[in-house]
Amino acid sequence: MKILMVCLGNICRSPLAEGIMQHLSDGEGLGWEIDSAGTGDWHVGEGPDRRSTRTARNHGIDISSQVCRLFRQSDFDEFDHIFVMDKYNLNDILNMASNHEHAQKVKLLLGDKIVPDPYHDDTQFEPVFTLIEGGCKDLIRELTSR
Ligand code: 4NP
User: Fold this and answer.
1) In this structure, which residue's CA is closest to atom 7 in ligand 1?
2) CATH code 3.40.50.2300 for 2-144
3) I need a labelling partner for 66 at 20 to 30 A (CA). Which of 15, 42, 47, 143 fits?
4) Nearest ligand 1 atom to alpha carbon 43
5) What's the angle, vertex CA 137, arms to CA 65 and CA 47, rounded to 5?
6) Are 1 and 143 in contact (CB under 8 A)?
7) Which of 12, 35, 117, 136 is catalytic?
8) pLDDT tens per residue, range 39-97
9) What angle do CA 93, 80, 58 make, to 5 degrees?
10) Where are the domains of the chain?
C-alpha cells in the first residue's frame, strides 16, 4: 500500500502525517510506504518546519530527514490513496485529477473534518499532532479490515 499525505506547504501538517502514518504502520508490520507533498512551492527542497520536527520528536518520531516537494501529476498513478488536510488542498488536488480513478483516490484525512493549518500559531502543533494521529489510527483500522 502506498499512501500520500498532502497539505499546502508540505512543511507542517503533511510531514507530521507522513511520519505518524509510517511509524504506526511500521509498528503493525504492514509494510506500507508513506510519502508527503504540498500544493504550494515556497518551501520545496527544505526540511519540515522545526515546530513539526520538535513535536514529532516529543512523540518518538523522527521526521527530520524529510524533504519538501510539490504534488505532481504522476502521484495519482503512484499512490493508492491521497489524503489531504483541508478543503483547499482537496479542491486543488481534485482540480488536477484527469479521470474518475484519480479523483476517487483523494480524500480528507479526517473524513469530514479538516486539519487546521498551524503555520501562524505555535500553540497548534501539538493539537494538530493529536488530530492527525487519531485520523491515522482510524485509517489503519479501516484499510486493514477490508
Ligand atoms: P502546511 O503549513 O500546509 O501545514 O505545511 C503551511 C506552511 C507554509 C505556508 C503555508 C502553510 N506558507 O505559506 O509558506
Assistant:
1) 9
2) yes
3) 143
4) 14
5) 15
6) yes
7) 117
8) 999 999 999 999 999 999 999 999 999 999 999 999 999 999 999 999 999 999 999 99
9) 80
10) 2-144
